[in-house]
Amino acid sequence: MTHQNLTRILPGLLTAVVALAFAFAIHGTVPALPAMTLAVVLGLLAANLPVTAVWTAGRARPGLDFAGKHLMRGGIVLLGLKVSLSDVLGLGWLALLLIAGVVVASFAGTYGISRLFRLPADTALLIATGFSICGASAIGAMAAVRRISHRNTVLPVALVTLCGTLAIGVLPLLVHPLHLSAEAFGAWTGASVHDVGQVVATAQTAGPAALSLAVVVKLTRVILLAPLVAIAGAEQRIRHRRQAGGRAGRAEGRPPVVPLFVVGFIAMVALRSSGWLSAGWLEAAAGLQDVLLGAALFGLGSAVRIRTLLHTGARALLAALAAWLLIAVLGLAAALLMVP
Fold this sequence. Notes:
The protein is mostly helical and about 350 residues long. It has helices at about 5-30, 35-50, 50-55, 60-80, 85-90, 95-115, 120-130, 135-145, 155-170, 180-190, 195-205, 210-225, 225-245, 260-275, 280-300, 305-310, 315-340.
């Protein structure tokens, strides 16, 4: 990176760091509020308050866009260090099949609902990916492999954050009416809530047994990010080849089947599963991942104009709420089968 480019993005990056410090401070005071969700909310506020809107749309914009794109990819790579294959396999084959079924049905159902509400295909794809896998991280991965414009990820990220936050408030209220055990509630949370931080915030209300199972179920969904993105990349490559008329000379313009950051994610899963890393290294990597993803989410949130969102996103909001309800029902059914 040249000195000129660094100078150009530095104001936005520093803005994201300062905002992230506020997000962590609020999370430390109110642990039920996930820091990643707070990062998006602070980005929304920064984009829409008159005092800060000019700054985020002007001098800080290049750095905030850089964070939303490149720091997001770094965060996705480090997300792999949270996933241990031994923990995942410990769930048993029935649970793994149920979780995979929920992801596939959630993806197909959310995409279908989004198209039913006449959302563009790219928007529907990103919403379906975020809702069915792992929130904003999955949206960033899918946008990269499908070469979807950065600005077109803003609405899906806002929706997945909104619905994930809704789950934090609603799901714990249903434990007693549905007569759920702590383990069943944990499995339901892990199978249906979008972002890892939102899963933790929701499941911890039912105690450590619910939290531990919720995290393992959620991270099992996260593993499915790699094959989903690989399939999307292969489909994009086939489409590109057809558009290029099958000419070999256009090969350098073809999109990769799997982006390097997804390969990095898979490598980190393998490294975590090997048991070579000490608890200290894993803790440090988790902290760095929170910083990268938090800065990226602030950058994405700071691109959302509420007035534009209200004007163009009404159908998207209804589609997202319908998809959220669908995934909650699918996740509950899977949880009751996993934990009778």
